[in-house]
Specification:
350 residues
Amino acid sequence: MGSTLGKNIKIYRKNKGFTQEELAELLNITPQAISKWESESGLPDVSMLIPLAQVLGVSTDALLGYDSISENEEVISRIRETVSAIKEEEKDRAKKALRVTEYLSTETTLNPGCFEIIKDYVQETANLSMYADPVLDNCFPDEKERLETFYKDAIRKGAYLIGHCSDRTLVEKAHFAVAWIYIHMKDFDNAREHINVLPSIATGMIKEKISMELTYFESGFEKMKFDIADNSKILFDNVASMLNTIAQDYGWCNGNKEEVYEVCDWCEGIIKAFAVRKDTLNMEHYLRVRRSIAFFKMVAARRLGESGEAEKLYAEFEKDIQSEDLTAEQKETVMKLLNNDITYYGKYDK
């Protein structure tokens, strides 16, 4: 237990952003005591466990390592397998989102300490809120009261995750998803509160950037190359996600065809530039964003009453994909994704 406790104190202290001196001051003890606990050369008195857990924002069970990790993993695996089965069985996207949200609402109530599944629930509810939004698909006009129950439940459980989970990645994903729920609820002030606590790329002071330099100075360039490879995938995923949103907003919202085409071509050009080195890509994400940008360009043409132009864009995209350095399976996948979008939204025929 000593080894687990010392390690956990150090992890949770760092997650809270405390130095040993700051934690010691909050507990009214010496920094040397904290150092001993974390180095496993001494243990805190039993009377210190509750105040220590409270200051670090975790349960005493988590602090002591009794957080049923293996049991949680079994629960997560079981629930995610069921979610996958629902998604495979239900073909209608909106109904699929509703069924998954309903299932996860029950499971998160039965497993209140399983933060991974709470995160999934909040994200799936955010996805559902998009289909339900009257400005967008308005798929459930007669289910407003039921949807409101899901939204409030997901927001409450998301807030619990944010307040008690020590995994920053899960916390940030929860903030992001809760913000989307509030946006679709038209509660923009609360949405902004969650958005404002998310990390920003605006300063350029990001972990991945300086972490590469740390590796270089600590271990040399050959080790740094592994960081570069990992961060290249992260960079692509984030850039692709941003460009997908830009193309989507222009395709659906802008009535100026030439401007839409210019912006979508710019987005596509950046994505294709990344593809020069496909080993740096998440290929699934690459194929999805390629089809998305093409689709939003076609949407713009159709919304302007130019069905023939939409068909021409479809043919050009298919030709481009067939000429690209992709496997036959990848080419089939990206065209299937595009055809599914066209069929689902029914904005135009192939």
